[in-house]
Amino acid sequence: MTEKKQVGTIYMNDFQTKQEFVTVFTDSLANHQSMNLYFLNDHGFNIAQKDHDYASVLNRADYLLNDGIGIKLGAKLWGVTLEENLNGTDLIPLLLNECAENNWSIYLLGSTKENAQKSAQKLKEQHPKLTIAGTHSGYFSSSQEIVETINRSSADVLLVGMGMPLQEKFIDGNSDVLKPLARIAVGGFIDFASGTKPRAPKVMRQLNLEWLFRMALEPRRMWKRNVVGHAQFFMKVIGLKWRHEHRK
C-alpha cells in the first residue's frame, strides 16, 4: 500500500494515472492481498467533516482515490499534486478488464434489483470473459444475511453502490467477514452501467465538468450538493490549512 497524503482531515493516495492504480490492483489480487477501495470527492469530504465515524472509515481505507476537480484543487492547497481524475465510473471498467482477463469474478451490490441485473447483463456484453457471481439491490434488512449471500457466491471482487456514506460504512463494518479480496465503493456506477442513468459527453468529462451535466439533469437534487457544497468544501479546506500552518 502506498503512503497517503494529508488533505485537511483526510488522508488519500496520489496515484498520477489510472494505469498506475490498475497495476497495483492487479498485483494485489494476484498475490491474494485484500483491499478496501474508496473514492473521495468534495461531497464525501464535506460529509466527513460532520460525520467523524465516516472520516475514520475513509482514513482506514487501503486506497482512497481522487474523484473530481474539487478534490484536485483542494489537494493542491495542501501541496498534493493530482494529475489524472481517478473517478470510479472511468476507472472501474479498467479494473473489470483485469478481472475478466484473470478470471476474477465480481458481485454487484446496490441500486434496485432491476438495475443491478441490467448492469450485470451489460457488463457481460462489454467484457465477455467476465464472470458475474451474483447481484443484489442496495436494500436489505440484515447485513449479516447479505454478507453470507456474497460469501457463498465465491466472488473475488465486490462492487458496492449504495451512495456515501452507506457504502463505505458497509464495507468497513463487514471487512473482517467479507470474503471477496477487493471491496470497492462505486457510488452510481451500477446505475450508469445499467444504462438507466446517462453519463456526461466525453468532452465534458475531460474538462472535469461532469458535475455540471448531472446538475442539468437533476437540478433540484444536485444544486445544493454542487454549488453550495463546492463553496463549503473550499472554505473548509482553506480553513483547515490555515489552522494547520498556524499550529506549527
UniProtKB/TrEMBL annotation:
Keywords attached to this Swiss-Prot or TrEMBL record, sorted alphabetically, are: Glycosyltransferase, Transferase
Q: Which CDD domains match?
A: Glyco_transf_WecG_TagA
Gene Ontology MF term list:
hexosyltransferase activity
InterPro entries per the UniProt record, alphabetical: WecG_TagA_CpsF
Source organism superkingdom = Bacteria
One Pfam annotation reads Glyco_tran_WecG
Identify this protein by name: N-acetylglucosaminyldiphosphoundecaprenol N-acetyl-beta-D-mannosaminyltransferase
